[in-house]
Design goal:
Length: 280
């Protein structure tokens, strides 16, 4: 092959290559001229989700419209719309977050207010119960104080009446010691207290008192008993610490044992000198 033929073939191949390259550039140019479609999603969100978020307006609304119409736009315009739409989505999400936080804050505030009101109501109820208990305690204390005052008044009056009895004069020279119904077991009631209580219960017309050594005999004359004006006779044996009762007869009723004398002594003084558990 001569050199002119080879040269012609090389020129032809070069033209073919240049022609192919021109076609590729032409296609790209045509594609750029035709544009690109609007994206199906922006930031991974469909246009329905964007609408539910409250951001389907302005750029997002424009993209949605182009997407539905299957329009194509220059890539630069699409990129600008997507950028603006992403900003609108971000603002909408921030507003949503703010509303959520406000709602949570309001819910927390309402819950705290409710807890506070319940706390106050509980404290008020506790205060009312405590005040009611305080008033009840104060009323009971006042009743007890009044009862104690009346009891003290009655005891003072009783002591005055006992001091005014005839027996105080009749036994003036007799040492006043506690009475015992059993040996070695004296009571808190003294001889004169016992006889004064008997006199208050059954007024009499005087006493006959005889003491012979350690023996003491006392006759209450014409005591006003239920059966009439009859005597009460009582005898004691003196001990260094007490007077032991050895004999007690009321009218014709004689108490023959220590236990019987104890019971009869209680009965003689139960009404005139009332005490819890009796005088002895």
């Amino acid at each position: 092959m001569n050199k002119y033929l080879r040269y012609g073939l090389q020129v032809s191949l070069l033209l073919v290559v240049v022609g192919l390259a021109g076609c590729a550039n032409l296609r790209e140019a045509l594609q750029l001229q035709q544009g690109v479609p609007a994206p199906e999603r922006v930031q991974g969100m469909s246009y329905l989700a964007i609408s539910q978020l409250g951001a389907l307006e302005d750029s997002c609304l424009t993209l949605s419209h182009h997407y539905e119409q299957e329009d194509t736009l220059p890539s630069e315009e699409v990129a600008a719309l997507v950028f603006d739409c992403e900003g609108e989505i971000a603002r909408a999400q921030q507003e949503l977050n703010n509303r959520v936080k406000e709602a949570e804050a309001e819910a927390i505030s309402a819950s705290l207010q409710q807890d506070y009101e319940q706390f106050i109501a509980q404290k008020e109820e506790e205060w009312r119960r405590a005040e009611k208990q305080r008033q009840a305690a104060a009323a009971l204390r006042a009743q007890l104080e009044e009862a104690e005052r009346l009891q003290e008044q009655r005891e003072n009056e009783l002591r005055e009446r006992m001091q005014a009895t005839q027996v105080q004069v009749a036994l003036k020279k007799i040492e006043d010691k506690p009475i015992a119904h059993n040996a070695g077991d004296p009571s808190n009631t003294t001889l004169k207290e016992f006889l004064a209580c008997v006199e208050l219960a059954y007024p009499n017309k005087g006493y006959e008192v005889k003491q012979n050594g350690k023996q003491l005999s006392i006759v209450v004359k014409e005591a006003k008993l239920p059966r009439g004006d009859l005597p009460i006779t009582v005898r004691f044996s003196e001990n260094s610490e007490y007077w032991r009762m050895t004999h007690l007869m009321v009218a014709d009723i004689e108490a023959r044992s220590d236990e019987d004398r104890f019971v009869l002594s209680q009965n003689l003084t139960a009404e005139s000198c009332p005490k819890e558990g009796g005088l002895f």
